[in-house]
Amino acid sequence: MLEVSNIDTFYGKMQALWGVSLRVDEAEIVALIGANGAGKTTLLNTISGLLRPASGSVEFLGKRIDGLTPHSIVELGISHVPEGRKLFADMSVRENLEMGAYTSGAWKNKAETREQVYQIFPALKEREKQLARTLSGGEQQMLAMGRGLMAKPKLCMFDEPSFGLAPMLLLEVFQVIEALREQGITILLIEQNVRRTLEISDRAYVLENGRVVLEGESKELLQEELVKKAYLGL
Ligand code: ATP
């Protein structure tokens, strides 16, 4: 479904990604693991068109997408739920959700999609008219995820969805991600909670200093010495 080949991405003169390649197949959950500053967010931003790679390519469903605008990339079926949620604080829950449905296909069906999002996150329905800024951290994360789903994505990219959440909510975020996959949505996930992430994902890539240093089946990575030492504290 997604094929990232050998990309280099820069911020000005500073190179943040070095020859990164990654593949996501349909209906997979693929995880990106790495310390702060490893380049995970930069990689998602390069896929979603917020950054352009200096070299290499990104293909989605057989079509080259590097160089397209972020808007066209959403239209093709990639939703990006960014780090830090980036909600519209002074807009209601419902308005925030609608902002996620601005693609031509999604706008027509927004009422139906909104009901589906409310089924996944019932708390959002109860708070439909509340301003986003008045929600708890967990509810804000649900809203950010719900807004991403409003574009009816084929591939959803989540950047640290459990960041700052209490353990109970963290569990819920992982349950939602698994449920989305059951519904046929393919997922590329950045998470600091490495053990849980490797338990629910099919495959994973470990990034260090802008390079992929390890990749493979998640079950196997759980047994890798590098992963155990650096990310599982064993
Ligand atoms: P985190 O978990 O902290 O978000 P990350 O793995 O997502 O880490 P990135 O945010 O992709 O890492 O950062 C990769 C590198 O690029 C880091 O050295 C970071 O300082 C640098 N960087 C990130 N954003 C910018 C920016 N807007 N301008 C300049 N450098 C940046």
The percent of residues in helical segments reads: 25-40%
Calculate Rg over CA atoms: 17 Å
Secondary-structure element order, as H and E?
EEEHEEHEHHHHHEHEHEEHH
The CATH class designation of the largest domain is: Alpha Beta
Strand fraction: 25-35%
Report the CATH architecture of the largest domain: 3-Layer(aba) Sandwich
- Note poorly predicted spans: none
Q: What is the count of helical runs?
A: 11
Mean pLDDT: 92
The tally of strands reads 10
Structural class comes to alpha/beta
Number of structurally distinct domains: 2
| Bound ions, cofactors and other small molecules, one mention each | adenosine-5'-triphosphate
Brief sketch in words of this structure:
The protein is α/β, with parallel strands linked by helices and 234 residues long. The chain is built from eleven helices and ten strands.
Task: Provide an overview of this structure.
With 234 residues, the chain is an alpha/beta fold. It has 2 domains: 154 residues, Rossmann fold, CATH 3.40.50.300; 65 residues, no CATH class. Helices cover 38% and strands 26% of the residues. The strands form 2 sheets. The protein has a 6-stranded mixed beta sheet, with helices on both faces. A 4-stranded antiparallel beta sheet has the order 2-1-4-5, covered by helices on one side. The two termini are 34 Å apart. The mean pLDDT is 92. It binds adenosine-5'-triphosphate (ATP).
